[in-house]
């Protein structure tokens, strides 16, 4: 075997390794909408979320609050008109999905630790881990807080990463949703 026959495979390997230094990255990071009320200043610990909110909110695309909170298998999602939050209080948040007559369709209790954590004034729910492709793994989470007007803010984050053919790959998406508070 002469030196010329080794150059081409070695060059391909080197090109592949060097290409890994400039990873393919896709980030769709929606900024906080300028026409919404200001976010509350970050505080240590959990934000106060207690209140009643409309199920239909605003965002880049329409997603009902109930769909953000409950599994896709939750049967009454189509009937939900309002969502009640109680807490966090004593390390727990109680979420109730209500119909137009304020009948409780579904109630869920989230406990700090297994169901959520608090960080920089946000309540964060990790929805889980997933495999995006055979070589990419990711996380899906929602961050909850209120704005100065008392509306519920939700920032949905999806992030995935891995290595494909010597190349590190990352994909991240962040979207904002606002659910108006209902006076009681």
UniProtKB/TrEMBL annotation:
Lineage: Bacteria, Pseudomonadati, Pseudomonadota, Gammaproteobacteria, Pseudomonadales
Name this polypeptide is given: Lipoprotein
């Amino acid at each position: 075997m002469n030196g010329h026959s080794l150059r081409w495979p070695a060059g391909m390997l080197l090109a592949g390794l060097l290409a890994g230094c400039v990873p393919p990255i896709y980030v769709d990071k929606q900024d906080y909408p300028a026409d919404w009320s200001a976010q509350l200043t970050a505080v240590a610990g959990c934000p106060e979320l207690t209140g009643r909110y409309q199920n239909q909110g605003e965002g880049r695309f329409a997603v009902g609050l109930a769909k953000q909170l409950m599994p896709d298998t939750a049967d009454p999602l189509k009937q939900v008109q309002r969502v009640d939050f109680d807490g966090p209080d004593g390390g727990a948040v109680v979420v109730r999905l209500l119909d137009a007559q304020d009948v409780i369709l579904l109630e869920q209790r989230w406990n700090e630790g297994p169901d959520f954590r608090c960080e920089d004034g946000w309540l964060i729910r990790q929805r889980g881990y997933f495999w995006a492709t055979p070589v990419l793994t990711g996380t899906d989470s929602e961050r909850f807080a209120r704005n100065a007007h008392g509306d519920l803010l939700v920032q949905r984050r999806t992030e995935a990463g891995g290595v494909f053919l010597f190349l590190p790959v990352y994909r991240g998406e962040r979207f904002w949703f606002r659910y108006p508070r209902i006076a009681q």
